[in-house]
């Protein structure tokens, strides 16, 4: 028997709202919007499960308009406008009380934030997040499109496009949603974003936070070996392609012929969206801001987050995960500094820990999802 599916409710943060009206016909409505969004029920179990979605793309599902400003994470001088809101999915376990969205007295469920890497998007985490939600039904999982990526690419974000600015974007989103995450998981570029989030919030943190940095080092990114897929070269190659292409297969072939691996080529084309032409034939267009992504990757190579690792704020536990077959540039010096930080943090009330994921390359959540699930699961137990 298959597991109950997670139903979708589309949530577009178009305006800042202070309250909601609940309609007893199992619908939601905003105070100034007569349009309603039905709370769907999953079959065959008849158990309401919610997956909130905020995207800049047009949706056939009507919207709940909601937004909050969280004084816990954000300075009160920051005013959030609709254009500041990143695209996201909120995948919720079966035991999450959807009423906490409307009822501020209801307890906030424990939240984990999942961040993708360069040229990725929140959909990279979709299958894995649904698995986590099934196993840990009291949790909810926030999947975010970082600036210049996916459905957040259309946002008019000011530069510089950097690790720090991407982290601040996520903190703003959490503030607006009134969420204080217990777990932050970042893959590659997203790992440094997670560290920067910890660096930018007030310290000590209000509650313990576990940060997972998946196959990324805190310091400078080193050049890989010959034959590795180099992100900078990939970004440069993509900049030579037209903004619209006739087929995904053509892009895959062009990438492979230029020396990139087939796996990377197939992953890159997940950034193509079909665009109808004259109601019949169609083409594909890129959904990322490649110029901004180029700046972000340069920032990723240069950003040094060792200070937060070697002086971990009280209440924070930083976990590094190295893929066994990673093409990412780990050095013995990186491993040595992390082990020294482990000992130092244990003495000062923080935490640093190193893990190795066997039988996995850099794409850890695709190469060995079972192993990654077992390692991460310890962060969600006890709730």
TrEMBL record:
Q: Which terms in the Gene Ontology molecular function aspect does this entry carry?
A: hydrolase activity
**Top-level taxon of the source organism:** Eukaryota
List, alphabetically, the Pfam families matched.
Abhydrolase_6
Hydrolase in keyword set: yes
Q: Which InterPro entries match?
A: AB_hydrolase_1, AB_hydrolase_fold, Serine_prot/Carboxylest_S33
Q: Is this entry keyworded Ubl conjugation?
A: no
As for family, the record states: Belongs to the peptidase S33 family.
Residue ranges occupied by any AB hydrolase-1 domain in the UniProt entry? 113-373
Entry-linked SUPFAM superfamilies: alpha/beta-Hydrolases
Q: Which organism is it from?
A: Dorcoceras hygrometricum
Recite the UniProt keywords alphabetically.
Hydrolase
Name listed for the protein in its UniProt record: Alpha/beta hydrolase domain-containing protein 11
């Amino acid at each position: 028997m298959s597991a109950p599916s997670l139903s979708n409710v589309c949530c577009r943060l178009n305006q800042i709202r202070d309250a909601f009206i609940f309609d007893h016909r199992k619908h939601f409505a905003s105070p100034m919007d007569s349009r309603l969004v039905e709370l769907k029920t999953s079959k065959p179990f008849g158990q309401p499960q919610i997956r909130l979605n905020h995207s800049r793309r047009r949706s056939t599902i009507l919207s709940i308009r909601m937004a909050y400003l969280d004084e816990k994470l954000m300075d009160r001088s920051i005013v959030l406008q609709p254009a500041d809101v990143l695209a996201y999915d909120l995948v919720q376990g079966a035991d999450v009380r959807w009423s906490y969205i409307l009822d501020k007295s209801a307890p906030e469920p424990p939240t984990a934030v999942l961040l993708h890497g360069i040229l990725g998007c929140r959909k990279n985490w979709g299958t894995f997040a649904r698995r986590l939600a099934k196993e840990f039904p009291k949790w909810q999982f926030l999947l975010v499109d970082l600036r210049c990526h996916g459905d957040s690419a259309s946002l008019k974000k000011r530069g510089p496009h950097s690790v720090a600015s991407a982290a601040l974007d996520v903190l703003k989103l959490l503030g607006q949603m009134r969420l204080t995450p217990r777990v932050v998981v970042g893959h590659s570029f997203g790992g440094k974003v997670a560290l920067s989030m910890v660096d930018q919030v007030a310290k000590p943190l209000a509650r313990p936070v576990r940060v997972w940095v998946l196959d990324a080092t805190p310091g400078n990114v080193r050049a890989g070996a010959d034959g590795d897929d180099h992100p900078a070269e990939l970004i440069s190659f993509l900049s030579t392609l037209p903004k619209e292409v006739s087929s995904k297969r053509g892009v895959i072939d062009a990438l492979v012929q230029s020396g990139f691996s087939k796996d990377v080529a197939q992953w890159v084309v997940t950034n193509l969206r079909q665009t109808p032409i004259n109601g019949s034939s169609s083409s594909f267009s890129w959904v990322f801001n490649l110029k901004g992504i180029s700046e972000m990757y340069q920032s990723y190579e240069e950003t040094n987050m060792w200070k937060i690792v070697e002086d971990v704020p009280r209440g924070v536990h930083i976990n590094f995960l190295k893929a066994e077959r990673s093409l990412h540039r780990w050095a013995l010096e990186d491993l040595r500094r992390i082990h020294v930080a482990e000992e130092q943090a244990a003495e000062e009330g923080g935490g640093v820990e190193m893990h190795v994921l066997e039988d996995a390359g850099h794409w850890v959540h695709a190469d060995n999802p079972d192993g990654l699930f077992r390692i991460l699961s310890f962060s969600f137990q006890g709730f």
